[in-house]
């Protein structure tokens, strides 16, 4: 042990700084939870005097924010009809809460291949492994999904089956929503009217698209062996809304032959302070070479100055942590879009480490000048990139994760949060397996359950 008083002073100072940091993180977490509770209580209070007894519990399991949006709209519809409502995420739901509730509405999406959203991981592990006694509960379930996946509404059906096996009584048959289909949402709305006794449909159709103007479009990877990727910027026509790093834009497709082909989602690559919404969009091609509907239109057909309909959606599960928390950002291809928004929002306090994979260094080192500037400013503490088509490299981003196992463990032990953005197939599964190898499956699961491991993959 050292007797040098200066060393002791340094050690005590470092310890005090560390304790202060922990206190700030805990305080911020508590403040965020209290704000969510306050929002929820406002609805619970709204109907409390209406003689409806206990507030209806509204629980949402959401991966990209749509189920959460519908949960708040459901709460508003109930409270407008005089029925109190309390909104919780599956991340904060447990069996005790369900046991103590007489009516619940569950709004549940499916991700991956029939998988639960990440925020529901703890509930699945702790609650759904065995049946519970929920004989006092009546429930309604809105299952969000997409019929192009093999297991349509897979997690919604799993929740429905578990509730029924646990003795809960359905108020009505599960309402399935295929890709945001308006008719199914109207059916849900009708069921809400049965609960409130209201005869008029509340005005809660999903918010209309806002007009945005294309102001810039650049091909960022000319000569790449991969598909063309474009950096696009849109300005709001009017006063721009607020959004946060991690949020998603829903772009409405123009009508074709009298049919509205729906919408496509894109990770936002910029911040409100940029004054514009930016994307990195890959031109997709069908097997016959025809361009993808949305990516073809946005990157080829839409003229500069042209307007599109778009709305921005809060994607809370991919929002960044407190400034002081270090971030490990992992992604491939256009996945750098969502990670770039986080880098823009970062300060040097927590800093970030980016692990990124693409095809060639010469053509696909997306946003290279910005990354170098963030390295110089200290926002980016470390940058690991690999290029699968470069002779002498040939690695994928999961190989970078595997090679950096020791340092990753060190960052995670120091409180870092992990954010993954990009391809669902290949990349996100490979990265998940590499993280499990590096950190241990239990640590990875706990991080997922605690919201310290977020994924925006598609
Ligand atoms: C949360 C989220 C974030 C996203 N972020 C981004 C992003 O930042 N950047 C980005 O580029 N993309 C992103 N995407 C993907 C994007 O939403 C679109 O899926 C993508 O642009 C392709 O849409 P498209 O309309 O051009 O293609 P579509 O016309 O819908 O076709 C998509 C692909 O499906 C296949 N396909 C479709 N129809 C057929 C058929 N009849 N036969 C055979 N194959 C077929 C083809 O391979 C085709 O390339 C994101 C998706 C999600 C869910
Ligand atoms: C990567 C990804 C995987 C998906 N997997 C499925 C699936 O297996 N089954 C399904 O019915 N829907 C699937 N969907 C569709 C979503 O459930 C649907 O888009 C839903 O509206 C998303 O709601 P959320 O934003 O609340 O997560 C998937 C969507 C994405 C982006």
TrEMBL record:
The chain crosses the membrane at residues 6-27. It comes from the Bacteria. It comes from Brevundimonas intermedia. GO terms for molecular function: flavin adenine dinucleotide binding; FMN binding; NADPH-hemoprotein reductase activity. Coiled coil: none annotated. This is NADPH--hemoprotein reductase. It holds the Pfam family Flavodoxin_1. CDD domains: SiR_like1. InterPro entries: FAD-bd_FR_type (IPR017927), Flavdoxin-like (IPR001094), Flavodoxin/NO_synth (IPR008254), Flavoprot_Pyr_Nucl_cyt_Rdtase (IPR001709), Flavoprotein-like_sf (IPR029039), FNR_nucleotide-bd (IPR039261), OxRdtase_FAD/NAD-bd (IPR001433), Riboflavin_synthase-like_b-brl (IPR017938). Keywords: Electron transport, Flavoprotein, FMN, Membrane, Transmembrane, Transmembrane helix, Transport.
């Amino acid at each position: 042990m050292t007797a040098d008083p200066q060393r002791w002073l340094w050690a005590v100072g470092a310890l005090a700084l560390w304790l202060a940091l922990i206190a700030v993180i805990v305080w911020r977490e508590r403040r965020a939870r209290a704000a969510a509770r306050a929002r929820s209580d406002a609805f619970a209070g709204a109907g409390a005097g209406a003689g409806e007894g206990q507030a209806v519990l509204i629980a949402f399991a959401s991966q990209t924010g749509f189920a959460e949006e519908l949960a708040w709209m459901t709460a508003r519809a109930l409270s407008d009809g005089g029925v109190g409502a309390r909104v919780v995420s599956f991340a904060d739901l447990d069996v005790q809460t369900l046991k103590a509730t007489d009516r619940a509405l569950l709004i549940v999406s499916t991700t991956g291949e029939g998988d639960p959203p990440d925020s529901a991981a703890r509930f699945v592990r702790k609650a759904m492994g065995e049946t519970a006694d929920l004989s006092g509960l009546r429930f309604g379930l809105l299952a969000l999904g997409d019929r192009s996946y093999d297991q349509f509404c897979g997690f919604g059906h799993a929740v429905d089956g578990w509730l029924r096996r646990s003795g809960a009584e359905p108020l009505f048959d599960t309402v399935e929503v295929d890709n945001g289909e308006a008719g199914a949402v109207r059916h849900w709305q009708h069921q809400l009217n049965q609960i409130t006794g209201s005869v008029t449909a509340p005005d809660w159709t999903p918010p209309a698209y806002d007009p945005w103007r294309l102001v810039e479009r650049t091909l960022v990877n000319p000569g790449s062996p991969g598909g063309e990727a474009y950096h696009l910027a849109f300005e709001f026509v009017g006063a721009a809304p607020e959004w946060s790093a991690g949020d998603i834009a829903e772009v409405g497709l123009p009508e074709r032959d009298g049919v509205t082909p729906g919408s496509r989602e894109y990770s936002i690559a910029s911040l409100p302070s940029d004054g514009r919404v930016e994307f990195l969009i890959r031109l997709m091609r069908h097997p016959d070479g025809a361009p993808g509907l949305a990516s073809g239109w946005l990157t080829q057909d839409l003229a500069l100055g042209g307007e599109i309909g778009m709305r921005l959606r809060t994607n809370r599960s991919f929002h960044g942590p407190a400034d002081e928390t270090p971030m490990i950002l992992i992604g491939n291809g256009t996945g750098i879009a969502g990670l770039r928004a986080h880098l823009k929002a970062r300060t040097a306090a927590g800093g970030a480490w980016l692990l990124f994979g693409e095809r060639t260094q010469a053509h696909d080192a997306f946003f290279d000048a910005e990354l170098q500037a963030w390295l110089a400013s200290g926002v980016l503490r470390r940058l690991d990139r690999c290029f699968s088509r470069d002779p002498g490299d040939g690695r994928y981003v999961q190989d970078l994760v595997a090679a950096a196992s020791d340092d990753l463990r060190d960052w995670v032990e120091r409180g870092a949060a992990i954010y993954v953005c990009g391809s669902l197939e290949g990349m996100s599964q490979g990265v998940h397996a590499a993280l499990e190898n590096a950190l241990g499956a239990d640590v990875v699961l706990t991080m997922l359950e605690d919201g310290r491991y977020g994924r925006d993959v598609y």
